[in-house]
Amino acid sequence: MTVPTPFSKSSETPEASTGPDCTTVDFFFENTYAQLPERFYARTNPMPVAAPRLIKVNIELARSLGVDPDELASRQGIEILAGNRIAAGSDPIALAYAGHQFGHFVPQLGDGRANLLGEVLSRDGIRYDIQLKGSGPTPFSRRGDGRAALGPVLREYIVSEAMAALGIPTARALAAVTTGELVFRESALPGAVFTRVASSHLRVGTFQYFAAQGDTEALRVLADYAIARHYPDAVLESNPYRTLLDSVIARQARLVAQWMLVSFIHGVMNTDNTSISGETIDYGPCAFLEEYDPRKVFSSIDQMGRYAYSNQPLAARWNLTRLAEALLPVLEQEAGTKEAAVVSANQALAAFDPQFEAARLAGLRCKLGLFTPQEGDPALAEDLLKQMAINHADFTLTFRSLSDAAADPQSDEKVRSLFAHPEACEKWLARWRSRLNDETVSPEVRSAAMRKANPAFIPRNHLVEAVLQAAVTRQDFQPFEELLDVLSHPYEDRPGLERFAVPALPGEAVTQTFCGT
Ligand code: AMP
Ligand code: MG
Questions:
Q1: Are 65 and 165 in the same domain?
Q2: 224 belongs to the catalytic site
Q3: Domain carrying residue 441
Q4: Are residues 129 and 178 in the same domain?
Q5: Comparing C-alpha atoms, which of 123, 93, 170 is closest to residue 28?
Q6: What is the DSSP letter of 149?
Q7: Quick check: 278 and 229 in contact, CB under 8 A?
Q8: What pLDDT digit, counting tens, does each position of 161-176 carry?
Q9: How many domains are there within the chain?
């Protein structure tokens, strides 16, 4: 399978048509957000680009949304994906939101380079936003050009699809096109437009936007919309707004635990990048740990390590505290007084730490193959992580090798070899084996279960970087296709793909990532 340019056919991408084309693309758009009060968004169309060409359509995702992937790859489809044509039923808008960026409040951010085209109902009845990112300036662009460079678009495509395959709630990639135009960052780069699918683009920052303006009516409308869309059962409660807050806290606590269990660092956990649905959104300078180091930071703009790997639960709790503050006026309507609303918000926030810890511990138990909880399990897990940190052990490989060692003690050697001082994990392995003996689970069953919790393949930073390099400098999209394929089955060992499962060689390691906006 060779894909020398973004525009030729691959087995994964429907053929982009070149001749006359009368295909129409049916998204069956609905526009519930565009029917909210006008101060929620700016009605604005994508700005056409010079020469749109298809990089990729996500066939399976398109089908699950009831959209025909062949239609998407048709000439009209590509024009829609580039913003050169407005699809039937689409009512494009740029959403208004605010946000705390690295702790500083910005009262107006908004979609500066994105257009929500509309919503579609998936085959399983869930409402999804279809959004173009990099589709030109909007009233929220401030000094930005409204565009996206090819590298960051491919990066978001790869990482969001990898996260989905890992089983982590995330926005998805429906398509990517090149624009035939350059964008100017530190250098001139090829431009691209990304089509993002998310169960909504409501953010903590959306609530902050109206709270900062003292617009309680808008807050109420927004909260009601969020409940109807994401937490419909909340209306059955006597306190729906408190239930909304509880629900977002629970989803975010679980989400951040899931990130950490696969060594993911989001990199830019600002409140405008914190979703109300509990999905991972806005993949900018994100990265995965290779050797385990809880203080690790990759993002070039995160100089103080605010969003370091192990700070992520603290950052999430801080963001959720901002959500609780923003919701106070509507919580007050439920609780009766301002004081009662503050008490209610604090009660909700107090649930974050225990929920995060419980999700993380449950995940670590799965990663270690422990079926029946015991009191000593947290210490067993923490001691392994401590030794991994001291010995620069690769996070992903250590847990994957333990999955093998669970069925076959011969594989202990593989685990040992990942530690700078192999004897360091000797004692721990003995403790682990003795702990496993307390359970009656067969080694084969345990090993199989562990393999489902411990991926073989993650988007290692150097692999992602190599893909972007090939695409940006040589218009070679074959590595992109290949990496997407590897990452689509992260828990399966597949012969011939070993090079995707190992850490960067010293010369290849990526130590810093960039926002790329
Ligand atoms: P991000 O860091 O990608 O989450 O974006 C933060 C804010 O900057 C959002 O309001 C974006 O819409 C805006 N933004 C980022 N890049 C651009 C760009 N190239 N043009 C206009 N706005 C942008
Ligand atoms: Mg953002």
A1: yes
A2: no
A3: 370-451
A4: yes
A5: 123
A6: E
A7: no
A8: 999 999 999 999 999 9
A9: 3
